[in-house]
Write a structure and sequence with these properties.
This protein has 108 residues and is mainly alpha-helical. It has five helices and two strands. This is RNase H type-1 domain-containing protein.
Length: 108
């Protein structure tokens, strides 16, 4: 299997085993997943050649952030009042921003 990425820093880290602390978790996940294959290579490609995968990754990140917000808001509404009524639903937009402990991060 050949795995391609437009991140030269990530490819270097995966291939060498040496990485910056910010990539430790990602590299560990990649190497764990890679262990199921008998043969796998990691290759750098240009961003232009990686457009569809890049767009899919951005969309997945956006969906994950929205699901996190939804889960926190739903949890907070239910905790506030077991019976979610119309008055509670009106406060959801404010709660969406209050529910985040850290700012949203979108990778583009």
């Amino acid at each position: 299997m050949c795995s391609e990425s437009d991140s030269s820093q990530l490819i270097k880290a995966v291939n060498s085993g040496n990485c910056v602390p910010e990539l430790d978790g990602v590299v560990a996940d990649i190497l764990s997943f890679a262990s199921i294959f008998e043969f796998i290579s990691f290759v750098w490609i240009s961003r232009e050649r990686n457009g569809q995968a890049d767009m899919l990754a951005k969309l997945a990140n956006l969906v994950a952030n929205l699901l996190t917000i939804h889960a926190r808001v739903t949890s907070r509404v239910v905790e506030t009042d077991g019976n979610v009524g119309h008055d509670k639903m009106e406060s959801i937009p404010e709660m969406m921003f209050a529910a985040r402990e850290e700012p949203l991060e979108f990778v583009f």
